[in-house]
Amino acid sequence: MNDFNKSQPYNNLLLLPPRADLETKEILTKTIKASRALAQLNGAIRNLPNPSLFLDTLHLQEAKPN
């Protein structure tokens, strides 16, 4: 590997991050659906007498080993 020259950058590298089409119809549709579901959950939690009790149980379920 005698061709290495530390003072010359390697300009054929791809730019980071790679281009990705994040605004496809499928992704936007799923984003809207998820947003609506979260809004419904938020509304349901606000109607509970003790919303923190519900949220605490979610944390416990996430902490359970599989």
UniProtKB/TrEMBL annotation:
Domain of life of the organism encoding this protein: Bacteria
Domain named Fic/DOC N-terminal: residues: 29-64
Name of the protein: Fic/DOC N-terminal domain-containing protein
Organism: Echinicola strongylocentroti
